[in-house]
């Protein structure tokens, strides 16, 4: 070969999820360890040179001279979604909303599109002009229209298009000039210039890149619906989550009306906020105060219940824990949980049996939350232990008591995060006594109407739960003694 011959690009293989490259095909990515994601591509030529410099379209400016008004977040009209996004949606931002089928993604975004269309139809100073374009690739236009009629989302400034071709979608954007673009879903749109079926890694990457380019160049906020896999992760290449500005997870049990939206990535706001929604036959509505969904509403104290306050992001959520201890006819008693971490519940039962002498070897134990709530953080351990004790002893805990704290293997009650916010929520709901870990209790600020009872172990917590008006008796150092009462 002549020394002046042009060097051709050599073949290479690239992971569609993380971008890792290799000279030969392998079944498993060496970087992200994903199976079946390595695809054949073209690597860089051995004699590749750096691209020539081009004149910039606009000179660089001091950062203090950059106009920030165009990047201010604008309300979507849905308060709970604004909470998650950090005050609203930023012009030019691309938001990916992912969730399981039937959880309510399309219903929520159709409601957001209708409210945004109503704002765009108002005065000129109320928001950006232009209609809202809703592109559906999964349903027909008639099906979406029926849903819009059911949830009250019919407005003339909401434009609907049923398309699955990317070029046609971009044509609709050129013709309508929307102030907001909703695509349901990104896995159903295909680019005719890219090989592969819609929903494939190459197609999803190409479609997302084109929509992001439109959003950034025209300043149009884009809301994308994304599918999830069996394990709950977002379907498609991992690079999709890196390309978009905001990634939101839509969660909820299909047997419950409660839906939660949490941001797992947010370039414009926090990622520890949670939005709560109520999904019903008439649509989806935001829940500014979802406390009543997780409390049973019992007017009289019942054995086997204890209320705790969990944290969903930065939002305190009161949750009622219910326990039932019953004699078991089986050689291996049942341990059944619902809405709780089964491993932590098993650990708490072992601590009760070992440190307090509670006999549970011949008893079935059922522990559940009320209203389909999920309480998996360690701070619910104390409430679980007290609920089991209450059911076994047959004595009800006072309705004004709320308990929070992690239970260690030695029986001690460990500190937890966000105790001050939990106490403020408990006082707002009318609770009068709170059992909190003794460690760090001295730094807590007084909460009007709430008596804080620091406890250092399960013995003190059990005594305080049934004797809210008496001082707590401290256990002897080096161990935890069993509270008075009959055997379980």
From TrEMBL:
The keyword Lipoprotein does not apply. Signal peptide: none annotated. InterPro entries: AAA+_ATPase, DNA_repair_RadA, P-loop_NTPase, RecA_ATP-bd, Ribosomal_Su5_D2-typ_SF, Ribsml_uS5_D2-typ_fold_subgr, Rubredoxin_2. Keywords: ATP-binding, DNA damage, DNA repair, DNA-binding, Hydrolase, Metal-binding, Nucleotide-binding, Stress response, Zinc, Zinc-finger. A motif (RadA KNRFG motif) lies at residues 265-269. Residues 364-488 are annotated as: Lon-protease-like. One of its GO terms (biological process) is recombinational repair. Plays a role in repairing double-strand DNA breaks, probably involving stabilizing or processing branched DNA or blocked replication forks. DNA-dependent ATPase involved in processing of recombination intermediates, plays a role in repairing DNA breaks. Stimulates the branch migration of RecA-mediated strand transfer reactions, allowing the 3' invading strand to extend heteroduplex DNA faster. Binds ssDNA in the presence of ADP but not other nucleotides, has ATPase activity that is stimulated by ssDNA and various branched DNA structures, but inhibited by SSB. Does not have RecA's homology-searching function. The middle region has homology to RecA with ATPase motifs including the RadA KNRFG motif, while the C-terminus is homologous to Lon protease. This is DNA repair protein RadA. The gene is radA.
